[in-house]
Design goal:
With 181 residues, this protein is mainly α. The protein has a single domain, classed as Orthogonal Bundle (hpI Integrase, Chain A). It contains 9 helices and 3 strands. β1 and β2 form a beta hairpin. It is globular, with a radius of gyration of 17 Å.
Amino acid sequence: MPKVNRNGQAAVLKDEQLEEVFNYLPHPHDLIFQICYYTAARIGEVVQLEVGDIVGGYVVYRARTTKTKKTRSVAIAPPLEKMLATAELPKQGYLFPGRFQGHITTRACDKALREMLDYLGIRGVSTHSFRRSLLTMMHFEKGYSLRTLQKITQHEDIGNLARYLEIGQQEADEALRGLWG
C-alpha cells in the first residue's frame, strides 16, 4: 500500500524518478536526500551530521543521532563522494546549519521535498523513500543479501529489514518462471 497522508509505506523510487527528484530539489535539500539515498540513512540522522562525521571515506552516524542508539559507519559511494567534493560545505559545526541555530530541521526538508514532488506529480514518496529505494535496488537488482543490507542499516531484526524491500508481482512471477526456463 503506497503512502497516503502519512499512512502506509513510503514509495520506492525508480532510477529516473530519483534523478528527477535530485535535479529539482534546491540546495541543500538535494545533497541531504542524496546522502539519505547513498547511505540508506534516515532524514533525522543526515540533518544532524557534523563536519567531522565525514572521515576517511565514511559517513559516521553517531549513536546519539541514530534510532538504534548505535554508531554506524557507511562507506561513501563514488557518486556521493563526487557531490561532497564539489559542495560548498561549512568548515565546522553541522553540515547543514539551520537558519537561526543548530541544524536544518527534518520538517524543512520534508516541506521542500513535498513541494517538489507536488510540482513533479509524484505520489506516495516521503523522506523514507530514499532509504527504501536504495535497499530495494541493492537486494533485488544487484543481488546483495539481507545480511549485507542489515550490516549497512544496523537493523536488529532481519524481518523488519525485509519489510522495507518492495517486490512487485512481476518480479515474483519472473523469479518462478526463471527457475525452469
